[in-house]
Amino acid sequence: MYMSYAYYSLMLAITLLFMKKDTIWFKFWIPDVKSGILKGLVAFPIFFSIGYIVNILFPVQLKVQDNVNVNSASVFLLITLVAPTVEEFMFRGYMQEYLRQRLKTEWTIVISGLIFSIFHPFVLFPQVFIAGIFMAYLREISGSILPGIVVHILNNLVEYMSAAFAR
Length: 167
Hints:
Layout: H1 2-21, H2 33-57, H3 73-100, H4 105-118, H5 125-142, H6 146-166
């Protein structure tokens, strides 16, 4: 568990360093936090519906590792808060902004979604790729990573609860 926290801490630190180096310093954030959260809450049912269809087309059976205690508070926080927030900073905050300065918006969305999916288990590629594209598009239309953070947190919360109650 400590290794996972160390990994996400390192990823956030590297992301923030690259953001500063490339002067992409919080350009992707909007000051209206309430609006960003609301947009994420509105987008989640759409995201969940798309995910449901993708899961029907590409069924996956994942087994939670027996040595992972899904009922621990640190696992809950890692899966539902730390990972989504850091990943949105990395992929939609830094990487997407970096790419959009160099490519057309459509390519930026696809490439950032593809890179996002590479950082997840390959067996989940279709699901994570579509999720990455959805959150990249959401970032483009909202001008903020906050709606994507909300969608990502809610998605991971649903997945966590499914794993916790499946045991």
